[in-house]
Amino acid sequence: MGSFVRIARNLLWSSFCSQSLSKNVSQQLFTSSASVFKSYKFRYGRTPVRKHREANATHTTAVELAFNSVVKIFTVSCSPNYLLPWQNKSQRETMGSGFVILGRKILTNAHVVADHSFVLVRKHGCPTKYRAEVKAVGHECDLAILVIENKEFWDGMNPLELGDVPFLQEAVAVVGYPQGGDNISVTKGVVSRVEPTQYVHGASQLMAIQIDAAINPGNSGGPAIMGSKVAGVAFQNLSGAENIGYIIPVPVIEHFISGVEENGKYIGFCSLGLSCQTTENVHLRNHFSMLPDMTGVLVSKINPLSDAYKVLKKDDIILSFDGVPIANDGTVPFRNRERITFDHLVSMKKTNEKALVRILRDGQEQELSIILQPIQPLVPVHQFDKLPSYYIFAGLVFIPLTQPYLHEYGEDWYNTSPRRLCERALRELPKKANQQLVILSQVKVFLILVQILYS
């Protein structure tokens, strides 16, 4: 009887200990989870559940907005032949995307409608294609505005509202009509980088947003939606990489639209017309008498067509632009602990707007005023939507030198085109307005003589 009582007592004690241990472990796990939860919320400002819900909300909102705003664009285009400027290349059909903005306009990419013969637009869920007219096109920023006169098209169409520049890791949804199907497509991604990027179509350096959502041919011109507003316009991807796409941010879009509304046509983005060198080298800073607390960039070349040519001099040190200090690497502060090249501040200025530049010249600080304007290079970077000019005299074919002419040498045109022409096209500056470099493209007399000799 005594042994039975001891056994029962031991079993009860073991059960009590195991329950107490389980309770303690459960409390520790709960405390640990709560601390991790609070740490995540303190670090990122949003809980994982809330972040997941926001991503799903962005996806759902994007789909709802897309049905009545995003359109598919059909373009028939014909590019000129720069080797034979009196001929055109064969026609080609391309497709892209666009979306409705305020004022009964459609915003899309410039490369979607470049060299167009005619443009058609189709709404989601509608079999009818409507004729569209290109009202304005900016090839530097790769944006274009279309208008449709047919009132039937605008029934049920809602304009999208432009938002702000998204922060890193914010969710966006890219809406468009990419290759692989005919219906509308929505892909999700997050913002991974915001910085000036080379725009492939216009060969210009403007701000762009890098995202990890897939942007394929056909997505061009479609909106990237964050919440219920547009965060940018999809326009290119990174070749040789997976799931790296780029969208045009809202500041560039607003600059393009406001310029068209104020001037009636696209004018361009302003430039100082300078070639600058960084001053990260200590000996270089000492040579130009820069104090330890001074930062800036060195002016190495000035375009004679710019207003800066009358104000600045070679070897000036630009310390600040509109009161914003410029670092020795040429960057300025941008948002929270981000930096961006000071060229972005210049490009966002309006045409004929003044900018205050603080410089260091011969050891003395000065503050100067410069009027900003778009500046055309000596050799045009692109010539979309117009035929090339040429002149034939006695069998000699003369044409102005342009980069599209050099592109006829193939994708590796930088190495395969004539070296002297390539160097002058990329580096030489104009000395006066409307100056052109004219080259002898072909000699037709030789071909005529050969035909006579062999006939």
TrEMBL record:
Keyword Protease: yes
Keyword set, alphabetical order: Hydrolase, Protease, Serine protease
Pfam families: PDZ_3, Trypsin_2
GO molecular function: serine-type endopeptidase activity
Domain Protease Do-like PDZ residue range list: 379-443
Coiled-coil annotated spans: none
Entries under InterPro entries matching the protein: DEGP_PDZ (IPR041517), DEGP_PDZ_sf (IPR046449), PDZ_sf (IPR036034), Peptidase_S1_PA (IPR009003), Peptidase_S1_PA_chymotrypsin (IPR043504), Peptidase_S1C (IPR001940)
Gene Ontology biological-process entries: proteolysis
Domain of life: Eukaryota
Family membership noted in the UniProt record: Belongs to the peptidase S1C family.
Name used for this protein in its record: Protease Do-like 10, mitochondrial isoform C
Taxonomic classification: Eukaryota, Viridiplantae, Streptophyta, Embryophyta, Tracheophyta
